[in-house]
């Protein structure tokens, strides 16, 4: 199972190390204890949005950039863990018309339905 807090911690640590900054320096600037920041970087603690904003401010990096990097890594991890649909017989796959009412299959986004059908 992919843990969001681990990916987030990895991204924060990588940014800090790339800048040549110490945990102590970033924790002081972010006004968070050194131990807590260390636990966040190791993926052992969940960081609140306020704490993330403070850490990003201390690193001089926009929160959106950090979240984008986490999202990209999460997507890659999902792709690596996902079963290949080519191995599933066609008759066992769900078609768009079998999805939940109000979903893409009900033409909420007809252009997406057309792309998936292609």
CA radius of gyration: 20 Å
Largest sheet entry: none
Order of helices and strands, N to C? HHHHHH
Please, what is the CATH homologous superfamily of the domain at 4-81?
lambda repressor-like DNA-binding domains
Assign the structural class, choosing from mainly alpha, mainly beta, alpha/beta, alpha+beta, or little secondary structure: mainly alpha
Q: What name does the CATH topology of the domain at 4-81 carry?
A: 434 Repressor (Amino-terminal Domain)
Which regions are unreliable across 5 or more consecutive residues at pLDDT < 50?
Answer: 95-118
Strand content: under 5%
Report the strand count: 0
- What value does the average pLDDT take? 80
Helical fraction equals 55-70%
